[in-house]
Design brief:
This protein is of the alpha+beta class. The chain has eight helices and seven strands. Helix 2 (122-131) packs antiparallel against helix 6, helix 3 packs antiparallel against helix 5 and helix 5 runs antiparallel to helix 6 (199-212). The chain has two domains: 4-114, Beta-grasp domain (Ubiquitin-like (UB roll)), CATH 3.10.20; 121-135 and 146-250, Alpha-helical ferredoxin (Fumarate Reductase Iron-sulfur Protein, Chain B, domain 2, Orthogonal Bundle). It has a five-stranded mixed β-sheet with strand order 2-1-5-3-4. Strands 6-7 form a two-stranded antiparallel sheet.
Length: 251
């Protein structure tokens, strides 16, 4: 027999980036515990539409924990109470009957609210455009064993590449710092020979763009690491700092 729960929702509603916002209370009954959090919001929106009310706006795409667009702050945690998971991977079985669930958008000056719980995260795209790529000629694709890369380096680079750029680290950080995101993207390339020719330029350019866009500074509270859905390590931040210092010394 399918289990259901009754919940109360406190959801942030905001008409636009320059409009004042507020929490609005909703009640939702007979919510199946086997549906995802986003499916629960779909369920709420269906009821709102039936009543002639405006549905809650939130961002989502793959619903498989790959894209990171499901950026919701739930009960004080980016992506919700589950560790190592995005909002779309959070299921209603995590909640109890009668729970009050608070839902709000990422809070960061660099991520302005578009509407309700959807924020503009193009700041991350601009940081990537500043240097998160390899532009030098690396020749034709090599056979798997032609470029000898230590397995430890290859594994760590792959771990860094799992960052999905969701912005959870920024939302979790009291300073609104994007250092975990930037350091993961820099580390992903700095660990591989293809990324070394532009390493100095990359570190300086991405950090400069991050500061220009209004992100805060890192004070090593490790909140970003604790909340990251892909379990990125703050060891990446140490690597980014080393890359940046080496680049400035070379100047």
């Amino acid at each position: 027999m399918e289990q259901t729960i009754n919940i109360k929702l406190k959801i942030w509603r905001q008409r636009g980036p320059k409009e004042p916002g507020q929490f609005v209370d909703y009640s939702l009954d007979n919510v199946p515990t086997n549906i995802s959090f986003l499916e629960m919001l779909d369920m709420l929106n269906e009821q709102l539409v039936e009543k002639g009310e405006e549905p809650v706006v939130f961002d989502n795409d793959c619903r498989e924990g790959i894209c990171g667009m499901c950026s919701l702050y739930i009960n004080g945690h980016p992506h919700g109470p589950n560790q190592g998971a995005t909002t779309c991977q959070l299921y209603m079985r995590k909640f109890n009957d009668g729970d009050v669930i608070t839902v709000e958008p990422w809070r960061s000056a660099a991520f302005p609210v578009i509407k309700d719980c959807m924020v503009d995260r193009t700041a991350f795209d601009k940081i990537m455009q500043a240097g998160g790529y390899v532009s030098v000629r690396t020749g034709q694709p090599q056979d798997a064993n032609a470029i000898l890369i230590p397995k430890e380096d290859a594994d760590e680079a792959m771990d860094c590449a799992t960052c999905i750029g969701c912005g959870c680290c920024v939302a979790a950080c009291k300073n609104g710092s994007a250092m975990l995101f930037v350091s993961s993207k820099v580390s992903q390339l700095a660990l591989l020979p293809q990324g070394r020719p532009e390493a100095a330029k990359r570190a300086k350019a991405m950090i400069a763009k991050m500061e220009e866009l209004g992100f805060g500074n890192c004070t090593n509270t490790r909140a970003c690491e604790a909340e990251c859905p892909k379990n990125e390590s703050i060891a990446n931040i140490a690597r980014l700092n080393r890359e940046f210092i080496k680049a400035k010394l070379a100047d």
